[in-house]
Amino acid sequence: MKKESLVGCKTDQNLAMECSANNSVENLDAEEVMRAFGKYGKYQASFLKMIAHFLINLTAFFHSAEVLVMSFIAVAPDFACHIEQSSVSVESKYIELNKCTMVDQNNQSYACKDIPNATYSFNESTRYSTLNSEFDLVCRDEHWAQHASSIYMFGGMIVTPFLTQLSDLYGRKYTFLVPLWLSVAANLACAVAPTYGLFLFFRLLAGTGMTGSATIGWVLCCESVAIGFRSLIPFVVTFTWVLGIMMVGVLRMWFKSWRLLYFAISIPGLITIFYYWWIPESLHWMVNQKKHAQIQKYIKKASKINNVQISLANCKANANGSTEKTTRTLLDMIRNKQILYHLTVHCFLTFNQVSSRLYFRIVMNIAYWGLALLSTQLSEDSYTGYFLSGFCEIPAGLLAVALMVKFGRRTITFWSLFLQGASMGLAILYPGPGKIEMIFPIAAKLFNSITWASQPILLAEMSPTSIRNTFYGVVQFFGESGSVLAPYLGLLAEINPVAPQTAIAVLSVISAILSLTSPETKDKPMPEDFDQFDPGFLFSHKKKQRAVKDARSETKLQKEKEVSNLQ
């Protein structure tokens, strides 16, 4: 016999079968349905496992691998300019000035590529170990190798807001799967691209698909688990992100050819073909869009797996809820001053976080070697710093989960941003000698990683279902713009050596203060539409005034109706 759910939806043993057969799915509260099946219900657990090991692994695991692989394949090996001459007398006309430039007998300098029969000779154990050696991306063309990273981020930055809008209109599942499959196909094409121009084109498509699917996948994951489980999601993301970093390093030890390495990190993506059958639609979106047939199918499957019947009558939203589906666009967000304000705040926060995170990675990778944090033996190993830069994010992920179980999202976001800024400020004031110089920057990176765990959860939980992906997509747009601009933070050092650190410190403190204006979302149901949106303390008085006004209007209408009935 099937058990009765005692959480969320209150069930009556005598009415269990009636509940399962006759209860209407109209005007359901998705959070109440989730709560009814339990925090660790079998359906929730199996879905989370699928999301954690397949969906999130793909969007975090493969995302990090696709980004970090460039640190191995976009580096020029040692090389020299080699002139193939049939006559020694002709060859003696040129003297090597440096690796890129030759000088003739008239003291006229020539770029290596401008000399007839001249080629670059690369010192590498395996032919074409990097993009640079296969496509001659050295000297004046070396900057083209870095474009493969920026164009990947640029593709995601431009397309993600449009994909997320489609996700709010047409559902999470297919707007997650199509970009995902595009990314898998584009990455496989990158591994066999015959020219560098085609490689850049496929990298653009890969970034477009992966960033878009990662954004939609994150929201889908948050919408598919009970409230109490959301605090655990960031650690799964952190773990899979780091696992992707580790995979690239390990595979590089085996595959010295850049094509084999890229193919090796891309081929597992073919498993996503089966996601068509494995990934269900978001219950929150189905409820918001009044997809009654799909909701019934979802509940039937969940009831069967959990061996429990729930009373849908006790899973209803407010009695006055709309029976029409809610369709919102970016224009609706812009017209709503409260949502527009919070959208602007979180765009600023995410821009600051992305630029800070990438800047920390750049600075700390240099510092690992320059400040002798590692022993001489380890420093000779070119992989050690790469692995350490990934492993150091695991403690932050564990700490973030522990904090989010105990404290609110807004509280953690504020303190981690504030302490990030304070740590960078202390790094400027107390640089210290040797290893001490790295203490405060490492602390700043730790707090940065904690913010990356709390702020996305806050963002997903505070935004209404009708615009959640659009909201998140616009924020992601500004986040990706931060990733594009992050390498240029170093240019501020030309103004003052500590200018980059100062900029991060100031922006972090400003972000911390602005984060306090966000609503607290811990243990609260996610809003379905604008009327359920919590605007935070800055606008709370307006919400109360509107509620009082609506109550008075309702009372007035009721009195008028009573008078009309008496007459």
Protein architecture, described:
It is found in: Membrane. The chain has 567 residues and is mainly α. The chain folds into four domains: 12-77 and 134-325, Growth Hormone, Chain: A; 79-123, no CATH class; 350-536, Growth Hormone, Chain: A; 537-566. 64% of the residues lie in helices and 4% in strands. The strands form three sheets. It has a three-stranded antiparallel sheet, with no helix packed on it. Strands 1-7 form a two-stranded parallel ribbon. Strands 2-6 form a two-stranded antiparallel sheet. A hairpin with a 5-residue loop joins strand 4 and strand 5. Helix 3 runs antiparallel to helix 9. The chain is globular. 46% of the residues are buried. Mean pLDDT is 77; it is low at 1-22 and 361-380.
Strand content bin: under 5%
Low-confidence stretches: 1-22, 361-380
Question: What is the CATH superfamily of the largest domain?
Answer: MFS general substrate transporter like domains
Q: Structurally, how many domains make up the residues?
A: 4
CATH class annotation of the largest domain: Mainly Alpha
Determine Rg (CA atoms, Å): 28 Å
Distance between the termini: 57 Å
| Widest β-sheet, arrangement of strands | 3-4-5
CATH architecture name of the largest domain:
Up-down Bundle
Question: How large is the count of helical segments?
Answer: 24
Q: Which sheet architecture does the biggest sheet show?
A: 3 strands, antiparallel
Transmembrane segments: 54-76, 144-164, 176-194, 200-220, 232-254, 260-279, 358-378, 384-405, 412-432
Subcellular location: Membrane
GO molecular function: transmembrane transporter activity
Keywords: Membrane, Transmembrane, Transmembrane helix
